[in-house]
Task: structure prediction
Amino acid sequence: MGRNDILRTIKDAEATAEETVRSAKDKAAKILSEARVSASDALNTGKKDADSSAQAAIQTARDAAAGDAAVVQKDGSENVDSINSSAESNRDAAVQSVIDTILS
Result:
């Protein structure tokens, strides 16, 4: 093997090595890009799941609050009805008391 053959073999080996390095860099960039996409998808999925859970919790709280409000409203209505009924039954006595006070 002559000097030219050795130099050519070295150049061929260098070219092959450069191609191998370039190919490895391309593969590494592709793997990194795919990992970023995968991480982004996982993040978006996690956010959607968290939003759904939060909305469900909010709706549950609203439903519970609406139920409590209905109970309070019912109790309040019953109290108002009781006060109105009591006021009506005492009205005649109150009117008579005012008349008696004026006439005496």
